[in-house]
Amino acid sequence: MAVLPIRIMGDPVLHSPAAPVEEITDEIRTLVADMFETMDAAPGVGLAAPQVGVPLRIYTYSYADDDGAPWRGVIINPELWMRPLEPGEPDPDDEAEGCLSFPGERFPLRRSDEVLVTGLDVDGQPVRVQVDGWRARIMQHEFDHLDGILYVDRLGDGDWKTVQKIARKRGWGRPGQSWTPGIDDLEG
């Protein structure tokens, strides 16, 4: 297994829809193992294949609940259904999220509170995940990556302008930018 470089905002693979996985091969299983290692090293709660430069519809997730109970898995070729969003502005304390492809920052974003995701695991077996709260947020965030959407693309005008200033200051927003967890220092 290996820790893979994570692409940063501006890399074309992050802004294009990913292709379905046609066949689950040993190469796909190795990619998934490397994605888990990369996600854990970052550390993150989710990682989509496009974030490591692979334009395929795969994401991993890992989260511990308030009692420390683990929740971890992979979904290949996911489909997502969600409850409609509650109207209103996001709560900056309870609805802020971050992204390994825009590291070190968090912004409030309204997400659906409940989702259902179906797909396949690395053995080609059906997966069905119905979750709410932060787990639903993780599923939506990672699914967005597969459609070429970063969470910062969904922000309101004020936060979007802040994102652009941060990206310019850090030299992000250009193709080919990446960082490797455990190796690169991303401090501004």
From TrEMBL:
UniProt entry tagged with the keyword Protein biosynthesis: yes
Binding site for Fe cation: C99, H141, H145
Catalytic activity: N-terminal N-formyl-L-methionyl-[peptide] + H2O = N-terminal L-methionyl-[peptide] + formate
Enzyme Commission number: 3.5.1.88
Organism: Microbacterium salsuginis
Keyword Amino-acid biosynthesis: no
Cofactor note: Binds 1 Fe(2+) ion.
Biological role stated in the UniProt entry: Removes the formyl group from the N-terminal Met of newly synthesized proteins. Requires at least a dipeptide for an efficient rate of reaction. N-terminal L-methionine is a prerequisite for activity but the enzyme has broad specificity at other positions.
Active site: E142
Name the UniProt record assigns to this protein: Peptide deformylase
Keywords from the named record: Hydrolase, Iron, Metal-binding, Protein biosynthesis
Cited InterPro entries: Peptide_deformylase, Peptide_deformylase_sf
Family, similarity comment: Belongs to the polypeptide deformylase family.
Cofactor(s) recorded in Swiss-Prot or TrEMBL: Fe(2+)
One MF term in the entry's GO annotations: peptide deformylase activity
